[in-house]
Amino acid sequence: MTGARLPQGLLSVHALPADHHDGPWDHILVPDGIKERLLSQALLRLRHGRALRNLPGMPHGLMVLAGPPGTGKTTLARGLAQTAARALAPAGATTYIEIDPHAFPSEMLGQSQRNITTLFTDTLPEFAARRPHTVVLIDEVEAFAVRRSAASFGSNPVDVHRATDAVLAGIDLLAGSHPRTVVLATTNFPEAVDEAFLSRADLVLNLDLPDEATIAAILRRTLAELAGMWEGVRPLVCDDGLHRKLAVRCAGWDGRRIRKLVLAALAQRREVALDPNLLEAADLLTAAEAG
Ligand SMILES: Nc1ncnc2c1ncn2[C@@H]1O[C@H](COP(=O)(O)OP(=O)(O)O)[C@@H](O)[C@H]1O
Ligand SMILES: [Mg+2]
């Protein structure tokens, strides 16, 4: 479900698992252990949230993915919802909800605070009651839970405070009333996110820029995807020496930019653009040189 029929502040609502949501989880290549850690944290909460609620220092079901833009945070969060939903399917379906953090601009005076309160006290609990498990994504949360100690930006600081307070109160409320709910938040700027929000997280995971081995793996994967459409690209998929050389040139690039390099390589020469089977190592090296 997307669009105008949704309550205020929601971008989309889906029932998972659903076959067309497969993909994002495998699409993102990260160092060993990161996906396992993320998935395990989500499964623990979704499966045993009710029991864990009795522990002191109650888990909030909040997980934060932090890192520079283009490192796969949004894609991984979407993939996590589907992968967790698949694992939990024998115990029932999962509702996956994406929040629009830009739906609550702080210039809207007290209105933002009221809307956020409605979101957490009415809208989300209502959806969370529909299926056994619920995953909520708040993408780019820095727009939403602004660090109160740093909030100025020309907006009324009192309103920023109130809106952030409303988010924190809302997360506490949702965690208590619907313990089989996970709230995933992503941020490009963790230093702009309120400290009290971060401290509620059961897990804050930093996605760094890819290291050399990961860059090579992303290039190999992207070339393999191309070879699925144009068989002539196949020899480049196995050229480990080429991937290593390119990885050195792409040091410091994010994952999005690395994938785009392959696209740029296809557009270095007109004959390759017309027939990608003609792609050569030199095209990739030229594209990497050009940045
Ligand atoms: N680690 C990665 N492995 C493979 N592809 C990546 C990686 N990081 C980014 N990408 C590519 O960049 C795209 C955008 O990533 P996105 O999830 O929007 O990043 P972010 O939310 O961190 O800005 C992804 O869909 C993917 O194609
Ligand atoms: Mg993103």
From TrEMBL:
Pfam families: AAA (PF00004). The keyword Protein biosynthesis does not apply. PROSITE patterns: AAA. Residues 59-211 form the AAA+ ATPase domain. InterPro entries: AAA+_ATPase (IPR003593), ATPase_AAA_core (IPR003959), ATPase_AAA_CS (IPR003960), P-loop_NTPase (IPR027417), Pch2-like (IPR044539). It comes from the Bacteria. Keywords: ATP-binding, Nucleotide-binding. Gene3D superfamilies: P-loop containing nucleotide triphosphate hydrolases. Belongs to the AAA ATPase family. This is AAA family ATPase.
